[in-house]
Structure formats: C-alpha cells, structure tokens
Amino acid sequence: MDRQVFTCGFCSKAFSQKYYLVIHFRTHTNEKPYSCDVCYKQFSRKSYLNAHFRTHTNEKPYSCDTCKAKFKQKSHLNEHFRTHTSEKLFFCDECGKHFSQKGHLNKHLFTHTKEKLYSCDVCNKEFSYKSSLNTHFQTHTNEKPYSCDVCNKKFYQKNNLSKHFRTHTKEKPHSCELCNKQFSRKSGLNSHFFTHTNEKPYSCDTCGKEFARKSVLDAHFRIHSNLKPYACDVCNKEFSQKSHLNRHFRTHTKEKPFSCDTCGKEFCDKSNLIVHLRTHTNEKPFFCDRCSKKFCHKSSLKLHFLRHTKEKLFSCDTCGKEFSHKSNLNRHFRTHTNEKPFSCDTCGKEFSHKCNLKLHFLTHTNEKLFSCDTCGKEFARKSFLDEHCRIHSNEKPYSCDACGKAFSHKGNLKVHYRRHTKEKPFSCDTCGKQFSCKNILNTHLRSHSNEKPYSCYVCSKDFSQKSNLNRHFHTHTNEKSCDVSKKDFSDKQSLNKE
C-alpha cells in the first residue's frame, strides 16, 4: 500500500504527514499563531514559542554530559557537543570547508555565490538579507523615530535603541553557555562563540584572510578597495570603518566617555583606557620571541621586532630615507613640508608630531605621575622615567650598527648615526645651512636673530650659547677649561700643556 504524500501548493515540497505541511505552509503565509505572554513576540510553531519563553525564565533543561554546561534548547546542546567531538557535519561543496553548524555554512556560501537578492530603489545597492536592506534604506530617509530617554540620542531601529540603552544600565543579558561570559548584544555573543569553535566562515577573495564575522570581512575588504564610505560632518575627513569615524568625531566634541577608576584620567577611546590601565598594573602582555623583551602595546612589539629584521618598507619620495613603519615616514615627511597639524588648545602653540603636543601639554598641567625610586625625581611620562633611571644604572641599550658605540637614549643614537650617514635633515630658512641635530639649528638661528638667552649672574653679560657662558664664567672664577677634554685648569700654562 502506497503511503500518502502531502505536497505544498507553493513550492511542491512533499511531507509524510499533513501536520508538517500545515506548519511548513506558514513559511509562505507568514502566519504566526503563537505569541509570548511576556513580550508578545509571535512564532509560527509552538516549539519555537516554548524555546523563546526560556529567555524570560532562564530555564536550561538540557545539560552536556561531558562538561555539565546547560542550555535552553536541545539544538544548542547538539551544537555545543561538537566542540568536544570536533565534529563538523556541514561542508561547502565549493571549497570543501567544514562547519559545525548549518547556519555558519549558509553564511559561508555567500562568499562564493555573492548572491544579493535585495536592492535599494534609491541607490541600487544590493544586499543578501532583507533586514540589511531595511536598515540601509533609513540612511536615505534619515528617519530616526526612536530616541533615548537618558541622553536623547536617536536611532533608526527600536532594537538599536534597546542595545544603546544598555550602555546606561550596564545590562548584559546575553551570556555564553560555555564560559558564562556576558555581553550586552547578541551579535557580540555570536562573535565570541567562534572563539570556542574556531570557525571563520567568511574569507577575503583578494588575500584569503578568514573572519568570524561578515562585518569584519567587509571592513577588511576596504583595505584593498580603498573605499571610505564614512565621512565626518565637521571636517569631511573620510574613514573606511564607522568605529574610526566615531572615534575621530570625539576630536571635535572633546568627549571622553572612558575614565580610569584609579586616577580618574579620561579617554575618548576604550582601547586607550585599556592601554593606560597597564601603567597602574605594570602589565606587559606582549613579548618578543627573539629577546623576550615585554611591551604594554602590541604596536610597540611590532615596531620593536623590526629592529631584529632590519626591514624598512617605506621610503621618503623627497630624500629617499627608509622607514620600518608608515607612521614614522609620515612624521619624517613633515620635516620637508614644515607642516604642524597639532596645536595646543591652551596657548595655541603648533607641533608637527602629536606626541610632542602631548608632552607640551604637560607643561600646563604640571602632571608628573612617575617618580624615580633612587632619587625621587618625578616625570610626566614613564618613558622619561625609564630613560632617567639609566643615569643610575649606567645602562646603554642602544648601540650604533656602524661603530658599536652605545647610548642610554634612543634619540642620542639617532643624532650620532647621522655622523656616519652625513645626513643633515634640519636647515636654516635664512641662509640654507644644514644641521644634523635640531638643537644645533636652534643655536645657529640665534646668529641671525641676535638672541642671547644666557646671561652671567656675576656681570650680566649675555650669550647666545650656554657653552660660551660657561667658558666666560671661568674668567670670574679664574679657572681655565679645555675645549677638547673639557677639563678645568687654574692657570693658562697647564691648559696649554693639555
């Protein structure tokens, strides 16, 4: 006897029981007869409603026999169990990559098909998901009907308002069922879960790099395309990522929403706060594989590692000088253009380097958080303290590759090295004379301005250079000083012998 088959009139899909056909039919009619009594969300199946209701009761009836982790849904338990067995049942027909969850496979497939079924009627931009299209469309209407009661910030979607509100309440309703880490957004939880499965379903077609989230892939791809879709309303500067625009915008608003619980210092970016906290904990999580030197910042480790490889990928178009880091090249280039894009809000003084502005600003605040254990001298920056401590230890970690001479400060090594390269990057605007060191240029400039900032406190005679003042002072003390050895002598005869 042939078994009766029930066929869907829309898509011709066949079912062995009429009940399954009825449930399936709701995917076409979008009928959702079951609603939650708590939040009124609607569902097409009763089983979906039951599973959803556990988000309110926090009930977790399914537990793992291996690690005793508990889950609200049986499907989540099955997915979790594969983290123990490393079983990946779903694989891609195109590239053969395996996945532990079917949803991850479906996301991965878009990297091959590039299928985008939904397009914007205004700008024709295409999307893989209808929800993405709906979200995008509001960028044209600029409609933001949902506003925060606390700070009045407005949003396109209600769920974005709900997510934002948690920044005020510090609520984190989404927790990882493996390690119990909590998140304010479900997307954050989903991304975190990949750290357990180690799955990266999205890959870059250009360089092959793999990512756990599509948004991260999209942001990465702009490195290749050089696309910068986010522009600042104030200065029109463009950015490849929205987070970079948000961070930049705080330079205009002077907003610093992240503060240190220890010293109260405020920061415009959370990553800067995290790095700052290491000044209190003395934590250095990044270390060099070659010399075991430790660093607070990952970027500092990368820069340090180039000392071992001697690799210099970036060169100056004007003078040909090579640099291991692009930021160093950009900084160097301002010596040719004389550009000073960083200015002090207090006194208006301009600087070519941001770090110099930060150092200058401390002259207004007089803030000195770091002190020497040996002599008690205080410093505004830890790097200054580290350099100062070498006076006591006589440590000279920077050595010249050409002659082997060692220095306690990196800056002194740079100046010394120009003796070998004959490089003179600092030039006088008046006479064109070039110098290897900026302070020598500053001294030279006084020959044009006739400025004499050093005066003798005995006879009030003025000098343009400190060395000339020191030499003059011996005329009062009757001491003689040798220009070569710098030794002091009480009479001219002994000086001549030297």
Automatic annotation (TrEMBL):
Keywords per UniProt: DNA-binding, Metal-binding, Nucleus, Repeat, Transcription, Transcription regulation, Zinc, Zinc-finger
Annotated GO CC locations: nucleus
Pfam families named among the record's database cross-references: zf-C2H2, zf-met
Superkingdom as given in the UniProt entry: Eukaryota
Residue runs in coiled coils: none
SMART domains, A to Z: ZnF_BED, ZnF_C2H2
InterPro entries in the record: C2H2-ZF_Transcription_Reg (IPR050717), Znf_C2H2_sf (IPR036236), Znf_C2H2_type (IPR013087)
Keyword Cell inner membrane: no
Any GO MF annotation of the entry: RNA polymerase II transcription regulatory region sequence-specific DNA binding
Domain C2H2-type positions: 6-33, 34-61, 62-89, 90-117, 118-145, 146-173, 174-201, 202-229, 230-257, 258-285, 286-313, 314-341, 342-369, 370-397, 398-425, 426-453, 454-481
Localization (cell): Nucleus
PANTHER family in the record: ODD-SKIPPED - RELATED, ZINC FINGER PROTEIN 208-LIKE
Summary of the function given for this chain in its UniProt record: May be involved in transcriptional regulation.
Family designation: Belongs to the krueppel C2H2-type zinc-finger protein family.
Name recorded for this polypeptide: C2H2-type domain-containing protein
Organism: Larinioides sclopetarius
